[in-house]
């Protein structure tokens, strides 16, 4: 991943009419950047403003104020829009077209010749693992297969940027794994990907960074490699012996100790105290069973940042999401 900026969002604000109640502000002064060849997760509960952000990036709706640029070019410019591939959360397909016919139709929108389209369709079906289903009508596809066709159509124009709205929603574990693999293969091809989700494990597995959106505001941006830093970790030590005396460690409030028979489990959020506990275990001749770091989960970081719990998949969507 390079350090050049692919997406630059500045001061993005958007509100919608809420009938006689006035206006509902959906995004409030949104500011963040996404780097070139980065997989960026956009985390938020239903109604947080994720889909609205994407629609603004795509030019489907206009912001109240703020600017969006792709690789230094305004998102309003036709050149910018030619860089984008998009998968909506609930894509619609012509049910009686086959997979190959659907992709051929989308390819025809980009003025490709018949030979170019045939080559592109074959390549995309192979990329998303649907070569065997190219002659099958889409009405016979499973949800996971339709999501793969959706990814394929988003890649027809070989975009530099992929915008994916809840691409794992409604998929079974195997379908989610297949979708993750496709996203990672796109990154390997040099593409930049932003996808929204409320499935934290998927974001943690494949993203370089993730933004946490709540109530229209960006609460935090997590770098996956650095999110679980030492200050956010808990060290857990397990040892065996008749007794363990830790009275020599003054910071007793920083230690939690559980005794189960002759097993002692000690945890602390401070690395220096964990080292001193290890010294005491060795000095007192107890047998060390394990020494591990219990990482602070992305979910915990999300809840602390957003101040709310993730809504489960399938919950009622807010119409402003």
Query: Using DSSP, what is the number of strands?
Result: 14
Q: What's the CATH topology label of the largest domain?
A: Rossmann fold
CATH class of the largest domain: Alpha Beta
Largest sheet: 6 strands, mixed
As laid out across the biggest beta sheet, the strand order is 6-7-8-3-9-10
Number of helices: 10
CATH superfamily of the largest domain: P-loop containing nucleotide triphosphate hydrolases
Described by the principal axes of the CA atoms, the overall outline is elongated
Structural class: alpha/beta
Q: Nearest-angstrom radius of gyration?
A: 25 Å
Mean pLDDT: 86
Distance between the termini: 30 Å
Task: Quickly give the CATH architecture of the largest domain.
Answer: 3-Layer(aba) Sandwich
Number of domains: 2
**Estimated helix fraction:** 25-40%
Order of helices and strands: EEEHEEHEHHHEHEHEEHEEEHEH
Approximate strand percentage: 25-35%
Spans of at least 5 consecutive residues with low confidence: 309-321
């Amino acid at each position: 991943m390079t350090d050049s900026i692919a997406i630059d969002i500045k001061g993005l604000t958007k509100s919608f009419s809420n009938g006689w109640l006035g206006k509902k502000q959906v995004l409030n002064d949104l500011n963040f950047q996404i780097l070139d060849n980065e997989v960026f997760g956009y985390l938020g509960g239903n109604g947080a403003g994720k889909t609205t952000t994407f629609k603004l990036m795509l030019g489907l709706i206009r912001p109240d104020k703020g600017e969006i640029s792709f690789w230094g070019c305004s998102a309003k410019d036709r050149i910018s829009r030619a860089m984008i591939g998009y998968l909506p959360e609930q894509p619609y397909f012509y049910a009686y077209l086959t997979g190959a016919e659907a992709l051929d139709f989308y390819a025809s929108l980009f003025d490709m010749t018949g030979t170019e389209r045939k080559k592109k369709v074959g390549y995309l079906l192979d990329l998303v693992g649907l070569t065997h289903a190219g002659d099958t009508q889409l009405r016979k596809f499973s949800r996971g297969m339709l999501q793969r066709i959706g990814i394929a159509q988003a890649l027809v124009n070989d975009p530099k940027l992929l915008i994916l709205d809840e691409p794992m929603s409604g998929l079974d574990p195997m379908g989610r794994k297949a979708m993750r693999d496709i996203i990672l293969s796109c990154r390997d091809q040099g593409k930049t990907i932003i996808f929204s989700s409320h499935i934290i494990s998927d974001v943690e597995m494949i993203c370089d960074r993730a933004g946490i959106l709540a109530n229209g505001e960006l609460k935090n941006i997590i770098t996956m490699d650095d999110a679980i830093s030492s200050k956010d970790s808990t060290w857990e030590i397990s040892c065996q012996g008749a007794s363990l005396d830790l009275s020599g460690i003054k910071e007793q409030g920083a230690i939690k100790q559980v005794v189960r028979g002759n097993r002692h489990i000690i945890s602390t959020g401070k690395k220096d105290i964990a080292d001193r506990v290890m010294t005491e275990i060795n000095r007192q001749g107890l047998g060390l069973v394990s020494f591990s770091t219990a990482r602070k989960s992305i979910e915990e970081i999300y809840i602390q940042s957003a101040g709310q719990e993730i809504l489960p998949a399938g919950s009622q969507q807010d119409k402003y999401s």
